[in-house]
Amino acid sequence: MVGHFVEHIFSCGTPPGDFVRGEVTTVTSHCLEFAVAVLDGADRPTQLARLEQAAAGWAREDIPLEIILHTVHTGFTVGLDLIATKGIVTGELEGPDFDTLAAGFTLVLGMLDSIVTAVTMAYIREMRVVAGEHHTAAQTLTSALISGRPASVSARQCGIEVAEEYWVLAVQIPAHPDEADPNVSGEIVARRKLRRVQAELARRCGRHALALLSTGGGTLLLPAPLFEAATIDEIVAGLAEAGRVPITAAVVEAPPSEIPGAVDRAHGLLDTVVRLGSPSGLYRHEEVALEFQLSRPGPARDALAAVLDPLDEHPELLETLAIHFANNFNRQRTAEQMKVHPNTIDHRLRRIAHITGHDPAGGDGAWKLHSAMTARGARPNTP
């Protein structure tokens, strides 16, 4: 049996040779002893406990579960072939002998079920422990990098090397529509959303992703040497699809020593994008540099935001202006979104020009009003 495993399953070199020469031979012997014990009428042979211990060790050594289960099934196939093939092919099994063989097959299927269940459950239990240990160590490393503390010890604990450069992502995860459903628990829906996002992140990035995420968002650190710039867009899109919500993120690149400042910049950039009501997706600094600068605190921002103060008494005009800018000055789309006639949009834009002194139809007036909208969105306590 072990020779068959080496030739047909482990020939690619995974798992390592010492595992095949030692552990596989020992476990195969235990499985055969288990089979003999079952055939002798034992209820739950003690060999299963040894298999569970072995499975836990395989999980820690990161040996794929599919290889382990395939080996178990192959072992049973080889065993049945050794026992039954000759009699079936030659027709020597008849009457009572065939009935005995059929009963034996039933026992063998029971053995297979017991071994697969024991191995799988032990493997999964250990993987949960390993994942918990890695998660804790990875969070410690992430916190250390974000806060600027030395990260070498934390990196050794979770087996992750600190990269030369990182993509620093500030992430906003909006509420799923079901979180507002009074017939279900919003907290449970939010946790499930987060688990889906985390599972997708693990699938795409493995253990390379360092994340501090809550149901509303957080911070991601991805090693720049392992992920190209275009890949970051795909990752964010994948997270949004998995979470079933329109995720918005901002990204900057920084070496480990500059990550604390990069986190502040990324979240500042994300805050600007969210306040502007921009579409979901990934944003880089160069894409919204003007908006980011206009939203920085200071007298210039406040003076620019004040351009729209006369519209405070006309909320429908402010809403129209914001939607019109978001639709890239397309009056038809603005009218459709607001469910009014295009002529109504034209009338409101003329009123805005009259009240503010700046024409939103185009040119300098549109630029001034758009800048004022950006500054106004960043001003504290602004509706």
UniProtKB/TrEMBL annotation:
Q: Which residues form the RsbT co-antagonist protein RsbRD N-terminal domain?
A: 2-137
Give the top-rank taxon of the lineage listed in the UniProt record for this protein.
Bacteria
Give the protein name, as stated in the record: Helix-turn-helix domain-containing protein
The cross-references to Pfam families, in alphabetical order and at most eight, read: HTH_30, RsbRD_N
PucR C-terminal helix-turn-helix domain location is 317-374
User: From which source organism is this entry?
Assistant: Nocardia bovistercoris
